[in-house]
Protein: Flagellar secretion chaperone FliS
Amino acid sequence: MALTGINAYRKGNTKQDVASADPHRLTLMLMQGALDRTAYAKGAMERKEYAAKGEYISKASAIIIHLRDTLDLDVGGETAQNMYALYDYMVERLNDAHVKNDLKMLDEVTSLLTPIRDAWVQIPESAKQEAFEAQRQKRQAV
Structure:
């Protein structure tokens, strides 16, 4: 029963965090969310909780698909195209892990996404502001 209150508190905090987050922070939250859901899926798989495993893999896949679909392939060039392909590959591996109940495939997704998340954290504040300003100007020009 106490866990219900804790989960409600966390959910409320997450909504507040999302409402006040800048685009960089939102992307970081999505990456962390995908990593968390992949870890939860792994735990469910180990416990043979297959319905929960499916839900967590589905949520992780949806997050990664969202990250993939928000890439600006025109501006990002080859780097964005490579990221698109990598996100696609991660979704494939999550699907394969679900079908085959393969923990190693979940670990592979984690090992691919973690360095991206870690690099995202290291982006200097000045670069974040510059990207945010360029995006704002692009929207105003349209």
About this structure: The mean pLDDT is 87. The two ends are 51 Å apart (CA to CA).
